[in-house]
Amino acid sequence: MTAIDVDEAAYLALVERIADRDPSLSALAAGLLAAAQMGLVKDSRSFAQGFDVAHALVLRALTELVAAGRIAIVQRDARSQRTIFAVTE
User: Fold this and answer.
1) What is the pLDDT tens value at each position of the chain, 89 positions in all?
2) Which of 55, 59, 72, 88 would suit a FRET pair with 78, their CA atoms being 20 to 30 Å apart?
């Protein structure tokens, strides 16, 4: 279970639907997008801490989602690299 309060079954089902719709996305990117769509997170650091994933890996997945046009960057902290984002779809 994650540190974020989430209906785990609903979250995993959404991750699977996203991955099925876009098999080019990594599993982490699909998970990040699902968390954003469910309103669980709005920034990279919250996802990293809540799901116990290295922030650098979350930033990589975020870059993947931006390139795919699925997420837009709203703000980025230059010092910490915390990135606030919004789902574009």
Assistant:
1) 345 667 889 999 999 999 999 999 999 999 999 999 999 999 999 999 999 999 999 999 999 999 999 999 999 999 999 999 999 97
2) 88
- Is the distance from CB of 72 to CB of 88 less than 8 angstroms? yes
Please name the helix (run of DSSP H) or strand (run of DSSP E) that holds residue 46, with its range, or none.
helix 44-50
Contact 36, 85 (CB under 8 A): yes
Residues 54, 45: Cα–Cα separation, whole Å: 9
Q: Tell me the one-letter amino acid at 27.
A: A
Which of these, 66, 47, 68, 72, lies nearest to 58 by C-alpha position? Answer: 47
The domain ranges of the chain are 8-87
First-last CA distance in the chain: 27
Eight-state DSSP code of residue 75: E
